[in-house]
Amino acid sequence: MAQLKDVLKKPSSFYDEFLRKPDNYQQDTHYCPGCGHGILHKLIAEAIEDFGIKDRTIMISPVGCSVFVYYYFDTGNFQVAHGRAPAVATGIKRTHPDAIVISYQGDGDLAAIGGNNILQAANRGENITVFFVNNAIYGMTGGQMAPTTLLGQKTMTSPYGRKATWEGYPMKVSELLSTLEAPAYVERIALTNGKNLMKARKAVRKAIQAQIDGKGFSLVETLSMCPSAWRMTPVDAKKWVEEAMMKTFPLGVYKDVLDEREVGSWHRALETVPIEKYHEILGLAHEGMEVEGDVESVPKIFRNPKVLIAGFGGQGILLLGQTLAETGMRHGWNSTWIPSYGPEMRGGTANCHVKISSDPIGSPVVSEPNILIAMNKPSLERFEKDLAPGGLLIYNTSMIDIKPTRTDIEILPLPATEMADEIGSLRVANMVIIGAVLEKTKILQKDVVLDSLNAVVKHKKFIPMNSDAINKGMEYARNYKG
Amino acid sequence: MARIEVHKDHCKGCGLCIDICPVNVIETSKEINNLGYHPAQYKGEGCTGCTLCFYTCPEPDAIVVYRKD
Amino acid sequence: MAKELIKGNEAVIKGALLAGCDAYFGYPITPASEIAHAAAKYFPLAGKVFLQAESEIAAIQMCYGAAGGGVRVMTASSGPGISLKMEGISYSAGSELPIVIVDVMRGGPGLGNIAPSQADYNQIVKGGGHGNYKLLVLAPNSAQEMCDLTMLAFELADKYRNPTVVLTDGFNGQMMEPVEFPEPVKKKPDKTDWAAMGDAKTRKNLINSIYLDPEEMEEHNVHLQEKYKKMEQNEVRYEDYKLDGAEIIGIAYGTTSRVMYTAVDEARKKGINAGMLRPITLFPFPKVKIRELAESSKVKAFLVSEMSNGQMVDDVRLAVEGKKPVNFFGRMGGVVPTVSELLEQFEKAAK
User: Fold this and answer.
1) Could you give the ipTM of this predicted complex?
2) Contact check, Cβ <8 Å, A282/C42
């Protein structure tokens, strides 16, 4: 316990004059006579002064009577939305881990509208200090019921007294938060007699010290007088805290694991990474094989491939499309890939659209493909009609027991799944298809496709098998006599 | 000898200091201050320097306690 | 090479890091989740903060804290989540905080669906939150622009101390395209004159949107309006696609503009003198250029297309001021207009 100074006067962590306060009384608070806020402000200000942390401190003003905390504290200040102080505090603290962030909140702010915000910040163990002022009523808005209003207590919105069966019970914030594992320190104090005031002073300092030491989340709940809304004299209000509030909200330490925690254990320092490394971190530094695409030897219809690939989820449909689009890009062309998405999506099926073109690509949607790859029966049934006349249909005979009906298209039936199985994995059926596409269209070079797989495929162990599958697919397409 | 100083123009006359003082050396002044309240005033002697009036006072600059004057 | 075939959503995050973004706070939602995934993956590697918030409400408030502390920060979401963010967006506009918000629009109202949409235009461009505020709104139409405009968003957000939205749609987020990534931004602006960073230099600063005195509140509002005016003077961006000599002026942004490029080309093949103006900034809106087109004797009509019930079209009509007919074609609920539908509209407008 810190020693008392010889002279106790206004702490230097308060502004000399409250210049932000828009009236002529810039030495005095805006609080009513006997209000607990002023008492708690002074305890916090004294701790900030004694700890020498004024420069590092950021105070967060909530919505409620303490909305103007920033009038008083000569620290960095934020005024924030109702109940959101713990979220704002999180944003400040995570990006400025060395700042001392103090969230100051009332009972409506913290326990009602911001209930989830405080719960989650506590549960994340944010290394912040929260001062929670519980005066069992909404002061600023004119004396309405708070989540902490006592049973039977009359307020503007519980004029006949709070009833458990209608409004529920007074919310016990300290008890609630102390059930969480992350918080380091939770205590409920009161600002009444000398003994309680000294305990309050100690608790305030402990909660701020916890943050300085990087030990994580601490919250001090203060039972505080609101003589105005309670319609009592300040001295009677103090008595009411002791006689009525303390019965519902017993004082005491609800959680204290400060001694068990290492200094700095909940301090989330940020690492400095030189920006010269960003391209490497973002995977942009790799050298992929690129060639200049040539369409001279490509049949005219395939010079601007518009590919629709459809099948079951799990057949590697999306990867097949990505490989084509990636390879197209590496030929110096524009390419787009878009997965089945929105209304086209039906249970268990996947499809994607790929466009490759030397011209800019407008809509990425392939509504009239010139290459259709059908990996299962529903896909063939659904999309065969959309294929452009003269287009190429590749369909997976392993999974499709019907035959296409169109006669104005080129058709390659291919037992892709069975071939993949022979190669060693059902998962490479999509690569067998790619082989067939390469062979039939001649637009993409095989070595670029193989190199593209390095960028596209996540499981590198499949790459040798993929290469084999592409070769088999090419071979099959080359030898197929329709 | 300890003593307190009440900055009367910054006192809102809430009476918390008078109530908490263990040796009853603070009283309400008959004067009306510029905030419109009867401020607290030190009776002039008997302060033990316990500091409770300072800590119970909600105003930043209404009471100064000299513990070892 | 710094060229990559990449989803628009992921390009947002790579662009953000290259723009010097320091923190990402967000909550998952389709079709924006890949943005959070990429942030979770890359931000820690670059020594930056990624934190999954408990809600969209909290995520934007975390951004408020970080931005008020002077760092570059972002969040991303889609319709239902963006609605939750409106509280924080209004506060950020009031407190003049540079936050980058990506809205990957999906079908609505309500839970709607995850298909692409442009129905948040009014919410983002016209307001959504309370008070007299404007957001800077950028509308990419490619994966490349998802990167580039995210980077620009950070620059503009700082330049004007204003929340800035990258307004895109599910298609643009999900689509993969080649993207050329630039070098990282080396220098970021000094914000010590207003941000509260938890140090001696910035101790005097206050992040605040409350002005109790009506006169002062009005003064702050006037200041904001002047700022918005400056944006209108300096930051209008649009693409001119075959506008020169065009008689039918298509106007579309985002994915719809992609469809419209093709529709313009097809219309021209059919002898219709079509062109397109693609707004890249939705606020500030290219109203001066549109008015100029409306006043041109060559221009016969406008055709606005959106994936909405007709929201941007109001701004077009305000700019055209009744000088020329403004036709509208919209699809809703996640349906993307097709080239043939737009072509038909061009034909109709040309009659």
Assistant:
1) 0.98
2) yes
